[in-house]
Amino acid sequence: MPEQPPLPDHLGPELSIVFVGINPGLRSAALGHHYAGPSNRFWKLIYDANLVPEPLSYRDDRRLPEWGLGLTNLVSRSTASMESLTPQDYAAGRLALMRKLLRYRPRVVALLGMTLYPILFPLDPKQTGQKPGLQAATLYDSRVVLLPNPSGRNASYPYHSMLEAFRTLAPWARNGPMSPP
After folding, report:
1. Residue 113 falls in which region: left (phi positive, over 0), alpha (psi -120 to 50) or beta
2. pLDDT along the chain (181 residues), means of 10
3. What domains can you pick out in the chain, each with its CATH number?
4. How many Cβ atoms from other residues are within 10 Å of residue 96's Cβ?
5. Active-site residue flag, 149
6. Would you tell me which of 10, 62, 91, 133 could form a disulfide with 71, CB atoms 3.0–4.6 Å apart?
């Protein structure tokens, strides 16, 4: 099976929140849209957490900047699972992500997956055992919020726990209160 082209980032100036995934799944890459897996809960979560004013699907991913939200991935290469990613993928992805964050300066970087924290903050002594929510670390001027991966494969987080974590973003969302805590 030929490798799919990378998914486009949906980034721009003056974003409140940029969601950073680990890497696209094969279905997302094949369809050309973020979080397109049938069991992925991302789109339901951002609506239920009041981050967008209407229900959306993966076909609406390009619309997120309308509400001050952006999408990107740490690694652009699509795989069936993150176990296929290499240390080189992570190192190159980290550099590319830092360039994007430096350019766009979102108010919040929302990491979609608990495994992203130790990849982005390898020297932080508290890198393991992180809990979802606002983190003490920052990326440039951006606050960091750690969220469970919304993939249907993530059986360790029930929907209500994920939703509670996603709701921590509400203070920064254009669709909600505008002043951060």
Report:
1. left
2. 79 95 91 92 96 96 96 90 86 95 96 91 68 91 93 79 95 60 42
3. 17-172 (3.40.470.10)
4. 16
5. no
6. 10
Active site residue 160: no
152 C-beta neighbours (distance < 10 Å), count? 11
Q: Which two tokens stand for residue 170?
A: 């509400």
Q: What are phi and psi of 74, to 5 degrees?
A: -65, -45
Catalytic residue among 10, 34, 40, 175: 34
Q: Which of 10, 23, 149, 175 is labelled catalytic?
A: 23
Q: How far apart are CA 34 and CA 54, in angstroms?
A: 17
- pTM of the entire predicted model: 0.90
Structure tokens at 127: 């890198």
CB 65 within 8 A of CB 10: yes
Q: Which two tokens stand for residue 49?
A: 């957490």
**What is the C-alpha separation between 126 and 137, in angstroms, rounded?**
10
